[in-house]
Amino acid sequence: MSHKRALIIDDEPDIRELLEITLIRMGIDTASAESVAEAKHLLAEQHFQLCLTDMNLPDGDGINLVSHIQKHFPEMPVAMITAYGSVETAISALKAGAFDFISKPVDLSQLRGLVSTALKLSEPAQPTKSTKRETATLLKGETPAIRKLNAQITKLARSQAPIYIAGESGSGKELVARMIHQQGPRAGGPFIPVNCGAIPTELMESEFFGHKKGSFSGAIEDKPGLFRAAQGGTLFLDEIADLPLSMQVKLLRAIQEKAVRPVGEQQECTTDVRILSATHKALGQLVDAGEFRQDLFYRINVIKLEVPSLRERQADIPLLAHHFLSIIAHECNVDNARFDSAAMDALMQYPFPGNVRELENIIERAFTLCEQNCIEAQDLQLGEYADSQLEQTEPGSSASPSRIVTEHKAASLLAAETSNRPPEQSLEDYLEGIERKEIEAALTATKWNRTAAARMLGISFRALRYRLKKLEMD
How are strands ordered across the β-sheet holding 50-54? Predict the structure, then answer.
């Protein structure tokens, strides 16, 4: 295998020597330049897989050199060497197209990690493991909006710049983040998604940064935390707008310093993690209202990626609908599932406030209720969806449409029993409890013969399978 070559650009001989020695020990050939002019000459004469450049050079700055390389050598990753704490410079470099940055004085372990990650861009992509359902939802579509997004994902996957993914609930923000991870040099590392709004405030620091055994009551063993769990990979911070201000300060430091200090530890641990974040809220408005730190917004919003709603890509609905149906039918060992023309017309006219997630849930539920594996318009129950969305869901809510429909239907069927609901118990939990009891009783009476239990409950076998899966009783 041919040796990798790196171009080092810095006007300080000591820095050049340090970088050269480090890369040579990694088995990488090097060439050095101390000015922009000399660097451009070497780039024209030789082929390199990586470039490391200082920001301040005698005849120009590194930002212009990054732009030059992006224009003439777009396949070559460039890493910027910046002064310590110069966040604005680092962000400018990333926006100009730099692969990543490292601060002076150079941390050799961080340097080696950066170089290893950058060089993976020139290696053949390795297939990554994913479930059928994940593969089925990787941004399929032929509309201009989705083609543009897929092209942006392919380009941004090569960078290490933090990306802020904006879009409505259910539009596929996590899938976009997963694609960026899978198409980039960190594909072999972990992809760690975390819902920032689901972590109790008092546990956030421990969850993100880890803790040492005995550091607080209940810390019965060491815990690495999310940053270290994502080492060498990607940390996806979903619903980042839900972080309290106190945690935003600590997150900002972890991102800027590329290091975390676990609760109870005295020393910081360096991290090698790419940060992707998302929210369905208008983050800029939250900054203006003082509810989200401007400096953190500035740091995570180096590049903004807009995910279109399903309404903006309506022509993709038939393709997505058929694909979801084929996946769901395959899981049930059915090979002739289909839509009738009226059902497809109904889908094309529905506004989908819950976007792609809602479409998938509608189809999954319709498939459990349809006869002879053909989904008709009434199986979609779009009227119930629209009514329950208007009555129960506020604009921007991320409530699951399938859950709303289940509650709506169950409430109608079990209205006589809801008067016994304890005031401290939610309607959803109460109705699920009744449903669970009825299913358990039928299964027990039939000695867990599902076909007989479905007949006793007055539902189809497929509908029983759906409910068992939903209630995690499968």
Answer: 28-33, 4-9, 50-54, 78-82, 100-103
Which residues lie below 8 Å from residue 460, measured CB to CB, with a gap of 6+? Answer: 368, 369, 454
144 Cβ contact partners less than 8 Å away, ≥ 6 residues apart: none
Q: What is the DSSP string of 357-371?
A: HHHHHHHHHHHHH-B
Name the DSSP letter for residue 241.
G
Answer for the pair 97, 66: CB distance below 8 angstroms, yes or no.
yes
Q: Is 54 helix (H, G, I), strand (E, B) or coil?
A: strand
pLDDT digits 0-9 by tens, 327-351: 888 888 888 899 999 999 999 999 9
What kind and span of H or E run contains 8? strand 4-9
Pairing of strands 50-54, 56-57: unpaired
Residues whose CB is less than 8 angstroms from the CB of residue 160 and which lie 6 or more positions away in sequence, other chains included: 94, 99, 100, 114, 117, 274
pLDDT of 119 above 60 = yes
Average pLDDT (303-323) is 93
Question: Within its chain, how far is the Cα of 377 from the centroid?
Answer: 33
289-305 pLDDT, tens digit each: 999 999 999 899 989 99
Contact between residue 74 and residue 96 where contact means Cβ atoms under 8 Å apart: no
CA angle, 299 then 302 then 305, to 5°: 125
- Of 70, 60, 57, the C-alpha closest to 96 is 70
E strand or H helix at 165, and its extent? strand 163-166
Q: Is the pLDDT of residue 86 over 90?
A: no
110 within 8 A of 272, measured Cβ to Cβ: yes
CB 146 within 8 A of CB 313: yes
Structure-block tokens of residue 138: 């990787």
